[in-house]
Amino acid sequence: MSQKPIVHHQITLKRHHKWIIGSFTTIIILFMITSGIFTYTLFLRQEVNFNALDKKITNLDLRTQSNINTISEELLRTNSDINEIGSSIGDINKEFDLLKASVGEDFSGVIDTIVPSVVTIRTNSGQGTGFIIDQRGYIVTNAHVLASEDGTLATGIVAITSNQETLNAIFIGYDGTLDIALLKIEGDYNPVKLGNSESIKIGEKVIAIGNPLGLQFSVSQGIISAINRAGANGINAYIQTDAALNPGNSGGPLVNTDGEVVGINNFKVSTAESLGFALESDYIVKIVNQISERELEEALL
Description:
The protein is α+β, with helices and mostly antiparallel strands. The chain is 38% helix and 27% strand.
């Protein structure tokens, strides 16, 4: 019996079938590559944009901080300028007050400064004037203001300030030759400024502050008529002035247009008008230092 030969069937793709399948695979591969490239490109662009934005933010922060620092510095400079302007205005006002006095308009600026440093001195036998020369409350006055009728030291010495505060005054010492006494009251004060009496000039305008006839803190204006006049003690240490001096002015300050005390009002010639005398300020300083040293030496004995 004859057998039929076995035929193996083979599927043979035609050429165009192979081309279609190959083309489809290629498209997929190309799509994947293209998608990858696009995704990577998008990522890079986002990274570049992010870095650029971060840089802008950083630069903005730096500029903002720089602007804040600049504004702060400007505010500090402005505040400093305001303070300097305020100080300058204060100095200008002070200079203007002194200028008004120097040209003869008035002494109001000087008076406002000096009167708080002037006190009324009152005892059981009379009264006069004094002025504070040290912030601790040391007062200079005439020795005769503190004398009783029999020539001894009066009792009940008090100082009355410009705001009408009455304070007990401690007697420190005196110099009989130049008629200077030193007192002290408790408290903290603005002292007068003692000028250099060697620099004063004849014709210079001055004011005398005191308590004439009990009229507290009265002011009279005049000029320096002469310097180095001799007093009853024979010492050429007195300023002659035509500023009115009356009982109660003794011990008060003679003040120039700069607000400096150039003398202490001491006496007047009763038989003449406008003829008053004040001990020169340089002698005040000298005698006060001597009294202080003498009292210190006695305290140490």
